[in-house]
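Annotated sample (chain length 74).
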Amino acid sequence: MNVNKTSVIYHEGIAEYDFGEGYSLRGDRFPRYIKLLEEKGILSRPDVELLSTQPANDDDLLLVHSPEYISKVK
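Output written by the structure step:
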């Protein structure tokens, strides 16, 4: 049987990623999301894998964003 997997990509450093109050991508949400997935047993399922990664560097970002956009976000 072929099992399709769902990958959840997470790194603890993402908690520092925060555009401020009122913005949906606030850093405090990510650790709470992972904790909820753990509490619900989702991360223990055989069809779900938790992957860790490293933050992208500027060369990585330049593959999909302009230098101007990267500067503005920084």
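Annotation: The mean pLDDT is 89.
Annotation: Helices lie at 29-39, 58-61, 67-73.
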